[in-house]
């Protein structure tokens, strides 16, 4: 595999971002209405400390992965936390370091702001991703609950 380039999303990336994010949502059997796609894209380019950010992975000139992340306050520390919300690598390039490179890029971006706590969740059945996560991060043991 050639070099992986990770860079912030650009407005010109819209079609590739949409393709990758749709594939990510498909993986989780999720369908979102068009207005949410539009809102998510708009938010990714809205200035603000707590607005979501996006990175895209490029290999041989082709978009092959993406991540969305955001910062939020914590009652446990002075610095913000970074929540890595979405992470996706095209199935054709899985196992080639795309996910690890995206995670590392988020970690580096967070570090620029003095943020050391980068965390994320995945579904317990996502065995492929969990192999990567077990290698690059520590499992906290916390169990998620929500009120949806």
Automatic annotation (TrEMBL):
Tagged with keyword Acyltransferase: yes
Superkingdom of origin organism: Bacteria
Keywords: Acyltransferase, Transferase
Signal peptide bounds: none
Pfam family, one: Acetyltransf_1
A GO molecular function held by the record: N-acetyltransferase activity
Chain ranges of the N-acetyltransferase domain: 4-148
InterPro entries, per database record: Acyl_CoA_acyltransferase, Diverse_Substrate_AcTransf, GNAT_dom
Name by which UniProt lists this protein: GNAT family N-acetyltransferase
Native species: Aminobacter anthyllidis
Lineage: Bacteria, Pseudomonadati, Pseudomonadota, Alphaproteobacteria, Hyphomicrobiales
